[in-house]
Amino acid sequence: MLEPSNLNNFANIIETERGDMKFAYVQNDEIDYLELFDHFLAEEGHHELLDPSDRIERYTYLINHNQSKFIFKIDGGVENRLERRLIAKITGDFYFNLIHKLAKISQDKCDIAYELYLVAFDKKTKRHYMIFNFIEGRSLTRDEMKLHGEQVKNCIEKLHHYNLVSNDVHGGNFILTPDGKIKAIDLTNSGFIWLTKANDAIELQERFNIKIKVPAMAMAIKKFTHGFKRLSRKIRGKKV
Length: 240
Ligand SMILES: Nc1ncnc2c1ncn2[C@@H]1O[C@H](COP(=O)(O)OP(=O)(O)O)[C@@H](O)[C@H]1O
Ligand SMILES: [Mg+2]
What we know:
Layout: E1 8-18, E2 21-28, H1 33-42, E3 48-49, E4 58-65, E5 68-75, H2 82-91, H3 94-107, E6 116-122, E7 128-133, E8 138-139, H4 142-147, H5 149-161, E9 174-176, E10 182-184, H6 193-208, H7 216-235
Helix pairs in contact: 5-6, 6-7
The structure holds adenosine-5'-diphosphate and magnesium ion.
Magnesium ion binds at residues 172-173, 186.
């Protein structure tokens, strides 16, 4: 299979607008990601759908282009909560920040996450579109997450170093490659990243008994709200 990554110029993220669409994409002399995007949209629905999640308006497709595989993702999630919308105003569009942060990871050859080649935002429909590299390998089971604990820990700690978070730590959001590497996919965030780092720490500890260091203030706030949510579910008679 051809490796598109060799020709990716992660130092050059091109930003452009076209009608209602806003784009940011990695410059590549061989693959025009904007063209690939148009190509995909024209054929939407004709590709293999991976693990369709139950949330509406979130689709993941596997696409083949000139012997290379890509992941095409659509996220139509609209944030309705006022405080989240305010935070998004302050911090900027998550996916447009993500392309820059992942580009830095790729430039550093850090090899801990997927690569992001294009982000598009449709101002009319509020949908985000993304093109990632397809990572050969498979998702991890819960036991495998524990078994590869050191690697998972290293992966999340490095993500945090680049000011990224998983925000949904489970085996389905990591790929174990044939050469034994662990890579994070499906990076999301809602709210302030420094605070969400504590979500990762709590999930790692509770689900896989993995301990990582995060800012003490973030941990204190999250533990408080975490406990509070549990308590309120208990009071309302729901399963905790
Ligand atoms: N870059 C990728 N490389 C390989 N497989 C992927 C990639 N992105 C997604 N997948 C596969 O598709 C599944 C769903 O993708 P994900 O981004 O986790 O979507 P969702 O938001 O629905 O959880 C993953 O669990 C994984 O099996
Ligand atoms: Mg996922």
